Structures are given as structure tokens and as C-alpha cells.
Amino acid sequence: xxxxxxxxxxxxxxxxxxxxxxxxxxxxxxxxxxxxxxxxxxxxxxxxxxxxxxxxxxxxxxxxxxxxxxxxxxxxxxxxxxxxxxxxxxxxxxxxxxxxxxxxxxxxxxx
Length: 111
Fold this sequence. Notes:
The protein is α/β, with parallel strands linked by helices.
């Protein structure tokens, strides 16, 4: 894992100490992680004003089978359901990785 902090938001800038690398879209999020590895910390916005949202970015991390157990996750979205959805997805994935490793193939498929 690389030593950087990733901030996903289509409009806002981070209010907490950085330095942060800011990405504004799903595609930028994926490209950053493919090029630089999983960061130490990710702060998610959910509503990115595009078809793909912050939750889709979290699903992508799980689909790629990244070990997220040591990644600090924050959800700063104004969407009231987003924190629960993103935290639950990542928490459940981390439990599976703890038990089975990253070779675990979830029985669920994401749309």
C-alpha cells in the first residue's frame, strides 16, 4: 500500500489536514489506484453528479479484491444513506479477507 490519502468529491476540497490527492470522478478514482496502489486513507463522497457514485468506487475496490483492512475509510457525503452503505460494504469485505484472504470469491455479483 502506498503512503497517500485519496479524497473523492466532485465539488468540495478536504477540510482535514493532508496532503490529499483529490479525484473528482469514478474514472479518476480507478486510475489513481491502478497507477499508485491503494492509499492509506480514502474519504468518499457518494453523489458525484454522474452515473457512477462513491459507492461504485467502493464496490470496485472489493471487486478488485484489494486488502482494505489497513485503509482508514471516511464518508463525507451529504447523502444520508451513503455512509452506512459504504462502511458496511467495506467492513463486510474486510471480514471476508480476514477469514479467507483476498482469494475469496464473494457469492454476490454487483450490478
